[in-house]
């Protein structure tokens, strides 16, 4: 069943997602009642984390690779963004692309030793890297316009923030800016899944020996996947830095990477809709619970239950169940009374 | 036409020696590699694909040292293979499966449709998951003939098929040498299929070559009959 959601041939589904995504990105701020449960600022951050979630989802769903360092890579993207901005004052879009490239290099460097071994070794190495990155950003802090390589200004008065991009000054415009950026990046990722790299990743996931016998250099293609997903995660870091102009090391704890992996599993790893759901669960759910006055730790209980549900019932997650519902709604009368799956 | 020579190949996995100083020569057409379960047939294919590294011996195809080519470069070099358990990618369409084989072996994409026509698979835009076992075996064959293969290895290509389907597959396999000019090695337990497809066979037993030569002559020899009687006893016991 889950295989249906992995089908790269589904061009129409991708186009529907693209149109709906753009409509949502541009139209949501104008809708009345937005901000009732979750503020537009919260939804903006959810959309940003959807990119990090997409990185996790593609690695796991398409290649069977477990990466537990994605939040650390968001921090890398954010750090590089702030560092380059304060040093050069280049336009945000240029800084964002540079940050994505640097984050891709970091991702590949982490994967290089691990991918020669097994999928499990990547999980262990990335978890350790997540811990190391947490320590590093806690110690070094994020650049705020000061001198030296770390770019830290000592006294509070000297600290500078990075302004939002020209096209996204107000909260409404910044949501639209982030929304369009997220949709564009997800669309590029979706395209990549439908062409040669996506085909190759599918073959690797199906079986190492089969892929090699077709002529696939599996290490090179896994590294390429790591580069692409890390770049996407670096974009998330850049957008996060732009949203408030400064970043707080406390947001990038290693446990957050574990939490993100869990929310992506719940959202669904076989479609990019799952990544969007993952972003909402990861950042939106805790906010929602705290606004209605529920203890923050309950998040772990809710997500724990969700994880058990996702793993035991369907591997396609919430996105997969929504997809199944959609297909059933479109075919009101099945020809056979009920398909028996043996 | 190609000539493939394996000389003194020995493979060890810990205490097991699945191939023990095996020398084989194959020349043109479809050649059989037979033997009881665990004889070392798949291991022989794994040596040729680069999945099993021999501790001794060499492999030569028309003057090229095959063992010097890294496993993932061998498709580009002209090697194709199918597996005992077919490896059709479930999440790609049949056509995408063959396209993948073309892309990574450096073959023109235009060749994909020729390969699909060759096996006669209809509606190639269905997902691998939606294909029948027979159709997946057809995709396997199509992936093996795409581009300009020099050596095609088929490991029990008819496993899990009914007699009519095996018959149809047999026709496709026997035409591969004339269609694309490749040498074909065929592993199968179905002796009728082997007799119909292969001009020559090599017989392995417990990692050693026990016979080789023209098919009818080899299958009639007492030693080969004994090797197969061994299986029958195991099965009925
Ligand atoms: N990776 C491995 N590690 C250890 N032993 C192995 C490995 N691969 C194969 N063997 C052993 O080598 C021997 C030969 O196996 P092989 O798969 O080549 O047999 P085969 O002739 O293909 O048999 P079958 O007809 O059952 O497919 C068997 O005893 C098998 O258990
Ligand atoms: Mg075998």
TrEMBL record, chain A:
PANTHER family associated with the record: HIGH-AFFINITY BRANCHED-CHAIN AMINO ACID TRANSPORT PROTEIN BRAE, HIGH-AFFINITY BRANCHED-CHAIN AMINO ACID TRANSPORT SYSTEM PERMEASE
Record protein name field: Branched-chain amino acid ABC transporter permease
Membrane-spanning ranges: 12-31, 38-59, 65-82, 94-114, 120-142, 174-193, 223-247, 259-285, 297-326
GO molecular-function terms, A-Z: branched-chain amino acid transmembrane transporter activity
Alphabetical list of InterPro entries matching this protein: ABC_transp_permease, LivM-like
Gene Ontology cellular-component annotations: plasma membrane
Membrane topology term: Multi-pass membrane protein
Keyword line: Cell membrane, Membrane, Transmembrane, Transmembrane helix
TrEMBL record, chain B:
GO cellular component terms, A-Z: plasma membrane
Top-level taxon: Bacteria
Pfam families: ABC_tran
UniProt KW Transport keyword: yes
A GO molecular-function descriptor: ATP hydrolysis activity
Name of the molecule in the record: ABC transporter ATP-binding protein
Boundaries of every ABC transporter domain copy: 4-231
Keywords tagged on the record: ATP-binding, Nucleotide-binding, Transport
């Amino acid at each position: 069943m889950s295989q249906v959601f992995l089908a790269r041939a589904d061009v129409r589904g991708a186009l529907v997602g693209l149109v709906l995504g753009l409509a949502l990105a541009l139209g949501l701020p104008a809708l009345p009642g937005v901000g009732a449960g979750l503020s537009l600022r919260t939804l903006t951050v959810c959309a940003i984390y959807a990119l990090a979630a997409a990185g996790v989802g593609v690695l796991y769903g398409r290649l069977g690779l477990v990466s537990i360092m994605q939040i650390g890579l968001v921090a890398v993207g954010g750090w590089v963004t702030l560092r380059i901005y304060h040093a050069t004052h280049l336009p945000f879009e240029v800084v964002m692309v540079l940050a994505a490239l640097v984050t891709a290099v970091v991702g590949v460097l982490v994967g290089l030793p691990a991918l020669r071994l097994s999928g499990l070794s990547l999980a262990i190495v990335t978890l350790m890297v997540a811990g190391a990155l947490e320590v590093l950003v806690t110690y070094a802090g994020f650049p705020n316009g000061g001198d030296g390589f770390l770019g830290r200004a000592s006294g509070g008065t000297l600290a500078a923030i990075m302004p939002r991009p020209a096209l996204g000054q107000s909260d409404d415009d910044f949501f639209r800016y982030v929304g369009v950026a997220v949709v564009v990046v997800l669309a590029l990722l979706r395209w990549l899944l439908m062409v040669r790299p996506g085909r190759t990743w599918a073959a690797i996931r199906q079986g190492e020996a089969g892929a090699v016998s077709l002529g696939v250099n599996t290490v090179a293609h896994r590294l390429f996947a790591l580069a692409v997903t890390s770049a996407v995660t670096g974009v998330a870091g850049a957008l996060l830095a732009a949203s408030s102009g400064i970043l707080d090391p406390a947001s990038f704890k290693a446990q957050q990477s574990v939490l993100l992996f869990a929310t992506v599993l719940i959202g669904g790893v076989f479609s990019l809709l799952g990544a969007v759901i993952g972003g909402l669960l990861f950042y939106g759910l805790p906010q929602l619970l705290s606004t209605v006055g529920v203890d923050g730790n309950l998040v772990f209980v809710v997500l724990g239950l969700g994880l058990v549900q996702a793993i035991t019932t369907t591997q396609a997650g919430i996105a997969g169940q929504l997809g199944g519902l959609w297909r059933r709604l479109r075919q009101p009368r099945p020809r056979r009374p009920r398909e028996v799956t043996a | 036409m190609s000539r493939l020579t394996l000389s003194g190949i020995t493979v060890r996995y810990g205490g097991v020696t699945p191939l023990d100083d095996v020398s084989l020569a194959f020349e043109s057409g479809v050649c059989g590699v037979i033997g009881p379960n665990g004889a070392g047939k798949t291991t022989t294919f794994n040596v040729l694909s680069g999945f099993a590294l021999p501790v001794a011996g060499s492999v030569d195809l028309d003057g090229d040292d095959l063992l010097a080519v890294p496993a993932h470069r061998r498709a580009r070099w002209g090697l194709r293979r199918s597996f005992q358990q077919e490896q059709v990618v479930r999440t790609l369409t049949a056509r995408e499966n063959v396209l993948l084989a073309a892309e990574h072996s450096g073959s023109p994409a235009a060749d994909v449709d020729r390969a699909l026509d060759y096996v006669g698979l209809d509606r190639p835009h269905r997902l691998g998951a939606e294909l029948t076992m027979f159709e997946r075996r057809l995709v396997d064959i199509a992936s093996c003939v795409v581009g300009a293969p020099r050596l095609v290895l088929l490991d029990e290509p008819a496993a899990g098929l009914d007699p009519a389907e095996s018959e149809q597959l047999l026709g496709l396999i026997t035409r591969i040498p004339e269609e694309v000019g490749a040498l074909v090695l065929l592993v199968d337990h179905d002796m009728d299929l082997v007799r119909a497809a292969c001009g020559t066979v090599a017989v392995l037993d417990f990692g050693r070559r026990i016979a080789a030569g023209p098919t009818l002559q080899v299958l009639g020899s007492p030693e080969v009959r004994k090797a197969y009687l061994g299986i029958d006893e195991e099965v009925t016991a």
